[in-house]
User: What shape does this take?
Amino acid sequence: MRTQVGIVGAGPAGLVLAHLLHLDGIDSVVLEARSREYVERRVRAGVLEQPTVELLRAAGVADRLDREGLVHHGISLRFDGSDHRIAFDELTGRSIAVYGQQEVVKDLIAARFVAGAPPLFDVSDVAVHDLTTESPRISFRTADGSHGELICDVIAGCDGFHGITRDAIPAGAATVYEHTYPFAWLGILAEAPPSHSELIYTYHERGFALHSMRSPRVTRLYLQVAPDEEIAAWPDERIWAELHLRLHADGFTLTEGAVLEKGITGMRSFVVEPMRYGRLFLAGDAAHIVPPTGAKGMNLAIADVRRLSAALAALLRERRTDLLDSYSDACLRRVWRAEHFSWWMTSMLHRFADADPFQQRLQLSQLRYTASSRPAATSLAENYVGLPWE
Ligand code: APR
Ligand code: PHB
Assistant: This one.
């Protein structure tokens, strides 16, 4: 089989890339290791920056997002027992949309079917070859076990952090920058109306907690836990008891409901440079990871493929390589801004087991300053709602 762009992974990066290429008249094939049901159900991130919303709208895949997404004009930082609102609209004139990543994925898979080029799901043994030639190849096994091969002009590695494309870059051809955090997040999805109209990021002596949502009937909640915590140690009653303790504030009542889903996610910062090897281009989590505190992961993935699709159009339609040659450097500028913002939010809001009282007072001082100084609040707000594309 021949295609112009072979895309490994049907997450937000791979699917948005396939769609943008299609709009540019460029054909691609998306290979996905999991089933369609699995990727459409997998609960992940839920915040879309304004630039992401605008991109999806311009690409014609935001009808349901515009109907069902929840537009938020601010968030609250909860500390010292009360809420301190960061008013995005007032500070930046911009807003965010709360809309689950798997809803974005569903909408984009539907668009692939409409285009007559659905992803190949349930593939296995995916491997990439001949990356430094002008005809790189992807070998794989299809769902029925037969051998497949895609000969491409370019390969896009959109296969997430645990994918195989990044590992195809030989040692010495890339540098990894990494940071791990001494905690994880335990997240639940609950069949309960949100207890507040906006997200609440809580700094508490027992650890960080986050109140988020997916719809007027479904709440998403997170608790900071130890990095090696087992989900079995957290029956629903223990999760609710801990959420009540950490989210306590005057005039606030946490509404409980049936727990629909729960899981533990590690926290890590990771960047590989450059995001390219020969004719292999990495995008999204395959190239970089941020801790979820800044809500940047899905947005960065989509920002990467916005650039990659334009660069691929220049190559495949005009035989120009300049945009592909600057792809990695241009992406990494936004990536590192998000890396810093996510690290900063994480450092300010979590309890570090080894922190002494001096460090804890610094955290509180930073929170109070961020909440009370207009320039400091604006800095948080402009990063959160998404900096304009460069
Ligand atoms: N072959 C084919 N597909 C693969 C392989 C493989 N060897 N390995 C992984 N995949 C698939 C995964 O099953 C997944 O569907 O690649 C996809 C990668 O998607 P994501 O992990 O969602 O990554 P990305 O598209 O970059 O989106 C980043 O995901 O993890 C969140 O917080 C992160 O919101 C951010 C977003
Ligand atoms: C979510 O709703 O899943 C969510 C929201 C904000 C974050 C992280 C996750 O910072």
